[in-house]
Amino acid sequence: MAVLPSHIQELVKSMSSLPGIGQKSASRLVFYLLRDGGDLAMKLSEDLAALKTKTVSCPVCYGVMSASRDICDICSSPHRDHQIICVVEKQMDMIVMESAGIFKGLYHILNGAISPMNGVNPEDLMIDELERRVKVGNIKEVILATSAGLEGDTTGLYIQNLLAGCQVRVTKLARGLSVGADLEYADLRTLSQAFAGRS
Questions:
Q1: What fold does the segment set 6-52 form as a domain?
Q2: Of 42, 89, 133, 139, which has the fewest Cβ atoms less than 10 A away?
Q3: What is the pTM assigned to this prediction?
Q4: What is the rounded distance in angstroms from the CA atom of residue 199 to the CA atom of residue 197?
Q5: How far apart are CA 94 and CA 35, in angstroms?
Q6: Pairing between β-strand 141-144 and β-strand 81-88 as defined by DSSP bridges
Q7: Is 98 in contact with 81 (CB distance < 8 Å)?
Q8: Predicted confidence (pLDDT) per residue in 49-105, tens digit
Q9: Reported confidence tier of residue 37, pLDDT bands at 50, 70, 90
């Protein structure tokens, strides 16, 4: 079997390091892009470059936003309830909530969950920033929407203890969600019930 050019091997290697894409899938994608005639490959190249040059983290909620903005659309919206913050682990959790249309407050994205076994400690997440938001803002409720598993529960409990001295109501989603399940994969009905039954 002929050896592939090194730049193709490198692209296959890079693509196979993405979540959910193995060596075979990455090879198929690379050869599809080669057959495409170049237009799709060039468009992907431009879009990937823009991902890094035109996207920044919102200084309020830590979600992704356009680099041309000061804060994201949700944080700047006058139609959102600025006294309620929903704490999620990752951007995809926020996207799921938004697509369900069940929450009209603000978000705070932790960028992960506490996991000492994986080397992720509270200081590695946006937890101190959440505490600052609660202390300086007129926040009445913090909803913990961390995943229903050991890491999510640990993170939620840590935040609950951290905010115990603040004048804020801390609630968590009801357990309509399966233990160990990510919000990202929850169906909208289950998510709505979990949200409505928060305690």
A1: Helicase, Ruva Protein; domain 3 (1.10.8)
A2: 42
A3: 0.79
A4: 6
A5: 36
A6: parallel
A7: no
A8: 998 899 999 999 999 999 999 999 999 999 999 999 999 999 999 998 898 888 999
A9: low
